[in-house]
Amino acid sequence: MVETNVEVKLKSGLQARQAALFVQEANRFKSEVYLQKDEKKVNAKSIMGIMSLAIARGTTVTLIADGKDEQDAVNGLVSLIQKEE
Fold first, then answer.
1. I need a surface site. Which of 23, 24, 26, 75 has the fewest CB within 10 A?
2. Which region, left, alpha or beta, applies to residue 32 given φ > 0 means left and ψ of -120 to 50 means alpha?
């Protein structure tokens, strides 16, 4: 299992379009991927789960991946979250 904390730098946070892109990227990996904000942990492959976190720019979240390609999943999703638009 790989776990890392990351600050969201996307201008709009993980809302609507960015959340959809995040979920699309997460679904490229075989590993189970989760996103945690405070005490709430959701499946990163679920658009409804991501939207329910209401993640704004500047929020620190925890990315958790478990499986064959866990490190690739975390690396890919961290780079997506940290893009400054």
1. 24
2. beta
Regarding beta strands 40-43 and 2-7, do their DSSP bridges make them parallel or antiparallel, or are they unpaired?
Answer: unpaired
Which of 40, 51, 55 is closest to 8 using CA atoms? 55
CATH number, position 23: 3.30.1340.10
What domain count does the chain have? 1
Residue 13 structure tokens: 């946070």
Please state, in angstroms and rounded to a whole number, the distance separating the CA atoms of residues 74 and 2.
Answer: 7
Query: Residue 72 belongs to what domain range?
Result: 2-81
pLDDT digits (tens, 9 = 90+) for 29-74: 999 999 999 999 999 999 999 999 999 999 999 999 999 999 999 9
